[in-house]
Amino acid sequence: MMKIKLIASIIFFLSISILAQQEPSTVNKNVHGEAIFYHDFLSFFSNKPGFTHLDVFIQVPYKNVQFVKSGEGFTAKYSISVSIYDSSKTTMIVEKLWNETVNVFDYNTSISKDNYNISKKTFDLKPGSYLVKTILEDLDSRKETISENPIIVKDFTGNFSLSDILLISKIGAEQNDNIVIPNISRNIPSYKDKIKIYFEADSKDTSDKKLTFEYKVTNAENEVIHKEEEVRDIKPGINQILYTMAEFPFELGAYVITVTLMDNQNKVLATTNKTFYSQSKGLPAIILDIDKAIAQTVYIATADELKYMEEGKTQSDKTKRFIEFWKKKDPSPNNDENEVFDEYYRRVEFADKNFSNYTEGWRSDRGMVYIMIGPPNNIDRHPFEYDSKPYEVWEYYNLNRSLIFLDQTGFGDYRLITPLTGDLYRYRY
After folding, report:
1. What are 28-63's pLDDT values in tens digits?
2. pTM value?
3. Interval 399-427: pLDDT, tens
4. Which residues of 82-93 are buried (b: 16+ CB within 10 A; e: fewer)?
5. Contacts of 161 (CB under 8 A, 6+ apart)
6. What CATH number should be reported for the domain whose range is 2-278?
7. Domain segments of the chain: what residues?
């Protein structure tokens, strides 16, 4: 009965605002870095024969929507549409649209990184591949953010099945009912927070079974860094499972937790997995590898500063030195934001997405200029000139400068041929 109350409280709680939970940024497929919103798509069991429940969670940080003065506080309004297409992306299967209103009493709450609102919608779909298009529009600023994500809706027709995994941010208690707050951003900033998960196990057997659940965590190199097991009584039908893993150390980076269901002969009956991220508070979401992040400071750090960060004895020591380096450059140390830090790695991410070729985008000449000086006011592209190789002219009106990039090979490897001199080597944000 307690498990039923737990999952019921998830459904109930997500219909209202979720306040003051500390969830630093993490990754979505097309909403990355300091994301406007986060989402998660999870397959659960449906009572409708031949169908699967697809739960769509949308998490919107308060600081990313516009609050306006209203009555005794501040109000933000935004709309969300979730459209599900077939795998060819041409036929819409179903669409849901709704509005969200968030009310707060004071301005500081409205701009805090730690506050957010979560929505949840459920779709009954046949197992298979789909494309989910999510659009969020701020109804005051009229700014719109679009994300498209291919997903697979699971098939649960086997004798034993496991649903997708929902990461849990917090388990609390309110009015004698357990309250479960989901972690949609999938960021677990410290191993001391522990990993909490919810999933469902379905048994089509007609009697109870004692089965073993293995919980395994692997890193980006697919190395097993932690494993534990438990034996549970599994009843016929759907079993709701809320589990907290033992504390174990893990560093900054991306990880996968895999749940495996086995019988008493260690035969695998079903598996399910979930990606999560360890992202220290105060670091931009793009940073999942501290060594790489330190290397990327090459355009703003001195040789001595770079060496000092690189020579940290442990990953934690390197991270501490890295954060100290950026704190010294914070133009407004009295608030939670570090505009220089955030903008620098926003540009690094943009460079990687748009200028990668033979090398990572942040290492390219265009990436270097974009990171140091910022986006140009105008780009004059010449990709197919009859009497010349491809080239681009980046115009910076405020600097009264034009920079020329030439593609010598014809394969998109644009090199800067305009020399950078003097003040152009200074990072601008």
Report:
1. 333 334 468 999 999 999 999 999 999 999 999 998
2. 0.76
3. 889 999 999 888 888 999 988 877 667 77
4. bbbbeeeeeeee
5. 45, 154, 201, 202, 270
6. 2.60.40.10
7. 2-278, 290-425
